[in-house]
Amino acid sequence: MERIESSEVERAIRESTEANQVHVIPASQSAIEALKKRKYHEGNSTTGCVVCLDEFLHGMEITRMPCHHIFHGECIVSWLHLKNECPLCRFQMPLDTTEI
Ligand SMILES: [Zn+2]
Ligand SMILES: [Zn+2]
């Protein structure tokens, strides 16, 4: 009996993909749309967006999660389409079960 072993790398990729598929739940569209948008003011305790690692500029529009962490609107929206949690504190967005 011959058995073909997959390489170490292939195994690692497969395992991480499988692990991601188990845990990743995108946020619902209505939860994303309900996020508060506001203008960024200098002096705010958060100085930058952890998704793209860019700094916020005074007066720019940012989006605030229910956990009060703030991100660029585009950044957090694309993040939430992949993962239903805050990139900083892993706060879980409320799931809107009526949409599923
Ligand atoms: Zn960003
Ligand atoms: Zn958070």
CATH superfamily: Zinc/RING finger domain, C3HC4 (zinc finger)
Q: What is the succession of H and E elements?
A: HHEEEH
Biggest sheet statistics = 3 strands, antiparallel
- Return Rg in Å: 18 Å
In order across it, which strands form the biggest sheet? 1-2-3
Give the name of the CATH architecture: 2-Layer Sandwich
The first-to-last residue Cα distance is 47 Å
Coarse shape? globular
Give the structural class: alpha+beta
Helix count from the secondary structure assignment: 3
Whole-number mean pLDDT: 84
Tell me the name of the CATH class. Answer: Alpha Beta
Q: Estimate the helix proportion, in percent.
A: 25-40%
Protein name: RING-type E3 ubiquitin transferase
EC number: 2.3.2.27
Keywords: Metal-binding, Transferase, Ubl conjugation pathway, Zinc, Zinc-finger
Domain RING-type: 49-90
Notes on the structure:
- The chain contains three helices and three strands, in the order ααβββα.
- The chain is of the alpha+beta class.
- The chain has helices at 8-23, 29-33, 73-82; strands spanning 36-39, 61-64, 70-72.
- A three-stranded antiparallel β-sheet has the order 1-2-3.
- Helix content is 31%, strand content 11%.
- Strand 2 (61-64) and strand 3 (70-72) form a beta hairpin.
- The termini are far apart.
- The chain has a single domain, classed as Zinc/RING finger domain, C3HC4 (zinc finger) (Herpes Virus-1, 2-Layer Sandwich), CATH 3.30.40.
- Bound molecules: zinc ion (2 copies).
